[in-house]
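Hi there,

I know you've been waiting on this one. I reran it after we fixed the sequence typo, so this is the corrected version. Both the input and the resulting structure follow.
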Amino acid sequence: MVRPQSHSSDGSARAGRPRARKIESPSAPALPIVPASKDVAKVTVAEMVESVVGCKWSLHVLAQIRAGNVRPGTLERSAPGLTHKVLSERLAKFLRFGIIERHEIAARPAHVEYRLTPFGDRFARIIDEVERLQESLTASDA
């Protein structure tokens, strides 16, 4: 079997595998890191409520964090069908809105916990009121 020749950087031919070409990909523009407090100012509370109420998993994850299930693995196991990807998206949304904060625990083994912020506690009361309104409507229909 004859192997193709490749050329070294000095232009001389050498036997062996051809060198792989480095493909330059256009670099994606770096996204600025915006603290949660500035991002929250761009989103109204009504938009936050719509975003949370419009997602079945958001309500569940928020309720679990309020109940004390603050570690990602516990949150993921709390509901059949809740995938790691969806949980990560919900947690990222809550972090972006300033509803929860992430705590890295340096114990052995190291782990992460999520806690409601003071704003998140107030926000959760709005969600509670929406749920009470739904329950009253459901009870009046029966």
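Quick highlight: The CA atoms of residues 3 and 16 lie 6 Å apart.

Best,
R. S.
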